[in-house]
Amino acid sequence: MEKKDSPSFFRFMEKRIADHLERNRMRTAESYVSTLNSLRRFTAGIDLYFNEINAALAIDYEMYLKKTGVSRNTSSFYMRIFRATFNRAVNMGLVEPPSIPPFALVYTGIPKTMKRAIDKETISRIRQLPLTKFMAFSRDMFLFSFYTRGMSFIDMAYLRKTDMADGFITYRRRKTGQKIVLRVEKELAELIARYPAPSNSIYLLPIITKEGANGHNEYLSRSHVINRHLKEIGRQAGTSLPLSMYMARHSWATLARNLNIPINVISEALGHESETTTKIYLSAINSSVIDSANHRILSSI
User: Fold this and answer.
1) Closest to 270 measured CA to CA, from 151, 128, 98, 143
2) Dihedrals φ, ψ of 181, to 5°?
């Protein structure tokens, strides 16, 4: 079969990205975009067709990723999305199922990740660093996530003013749809007061100023800038770990565990590898118990 007689893998992947965006699955769409960009670099921008995808190509791609210096975790991440997209096309009947699975000989596992938590002394140093206005904003967005039990940056960006009422913030995680209710502790209230969003904005934080696709682009741009700033902030605070927004979640969990807060209260959402287990734990806990745990953590630093 000639290339032109086989469907374009890149066009199919673009369609999958559009589908995820339409369903408001922003994080999933971002993962697919990252993988598509990586594959395009691998092929030097030349279109990839389904009849070219086989075990040899998958091995070549894995070797390419290794040569470019990506971690084993990142390589596996790209491979899993590559495989999921390919299998989706097979399940839809767009391509014939191969006799030899293309991804059988490449690594698609989920290994244990590196340490992603910092201790309370480091967090205290980060809070007290003298920083420029823009660096301080990045530091405070990290603290916002920490103060809210590890709220993801995308949930922070799309948090609405109406989501905060009567001393509580209520929102649904974009990743899972799970409803979260948390009490606004003193530290969080003071931080929010420092960064009032424009009066004509629907959002609580001044991260996004526009709605729709432009707003999503703003969120992505801010995310990159903040994580770049956080690496420098972490260096100034004396940590050898590359500080990032995601570390706020792990740090909250680790401090909770060190304070002997019961695992079911921490909810293992911040320790379990399974999102299903996370939801089981969280659904069984009274939110006031979790708020009490959060108050203890913030009071300890």
Assistant:
1) 151
2) -125, 125
- Burial of 133 (C-beta count, 10 Å sphere; 0-12/13-18/19+): exposed
Paired tokens of 103 = 């991804």
Token pair for residue 174?
């974009």
Low-confidence ranges of the chain (pLDDT < 70): 1-5, 111-115, 213, 264-289
**Selection from 138, 185, 178 nearest residue 164 by Cα:** 185
Side chain identity, residue 228: R
Angle value at C-alpha 187, between 246 and 209, nearest 5 degrees: 60
- Close Cβ partners of 201 (under 8 Å, ≥ 6 residues apart): 161, 208, 209
Q: What DSSP line would sit under 110-175, residue for residue?
A: -PPPPP----HHHHHHHHH----HHHHHHHHHHHHHHHTTS--HHHHHT-BGGGEETTEEEEE-TT
> Encoding tokens for residue 65?
């990723």
Contact between 152 and 164 (Cβ < 8 Å): no
Give the DSSP H/E element, type plus range, for residue 183: strand 179-183
SS3 at position 203: strand
Strands of the sheet containing 168-172, edge to edge, are 164-165, 168-172, 179-183
User: CA 32 from chain center: how many Å?
Assistant: 13
**Neighbour tally for 49: CB within 10 Å:** 20
Whether the Cβ atoms of residue 82 and residue 61 lie closer than 8 Å to each other: yes
